[in-house]
Design a protein that fits this description.
mainly alpha, 2 helices, DivIVA_fam, DivIVA_domain
């Protein structure tokens, strides 16, 4: 700005016959200088405010960028965690399937073993019954002979 409040305050005007009243001009120029000083102070305050706001906007943009990067990183981590959880779930499912198959195999073997034991028990029962029957028949035959004997 080419004109300052001091320029206005101390401006000299040439005096001519029947010119302006010097005192009135000086008072007016003093008021204009004061208003100018106020406007300049306000202008400087506004410039500082603008600069502070621009700095804040830059800081917020930087923070926004960091937040965007953090969100992208969080999304990536979430996808990785989901994929890992799916892999672990599949592994657990396969292990459960293998365990089920092993339990079924063992159960079938146990069933086969129990059927074999049952069959042996039936055979032993039949053998025992035939032995007991033969023994009883032997005793009966011996008793009949004793009864017939003189």
């Amino acid at each position: 700005m080419d004109l300052t409040p001091l320029d206005v305050r101390y401006q000299e005007f040439p005096v001519e016959f029947r010119g302006y009243q010097r005192r009135a001009v000086r008072e007016y120029l003093a008021r204009v200088a004061e208003v100018m000083e106020g406007l300049l102070r306000e202008n400087e305050a506004l410039r500082q405010r603008i600069q502070a706001l621009e700095e804040e906007a830059a800081r917020l943009k930087e923070t926004e960028g960091e937040l965007k990067r953090a969100v992208v990183a969080a999304e990536k981590i979430a996808r990785e965690l989901k994929a890992q959880a799916e892999r672990e779930a599949e592994l657990i499912r396969k292990e459960a399937e293998a365990t089920k198959e092993e339990i079924l195999r063992q159960a079938m073997e146990e069933l086969k073993r129990l059927k074999g034991e049952m069959e042996r028990a039936k055979q032993e029962k039949a053998f025992f019954l035939s032995q007991a029957k033969a023994l009883v028949e032997g005793y009966l035959e011996a008793l009949r002979r004793l009864e017939k004997a003189p």
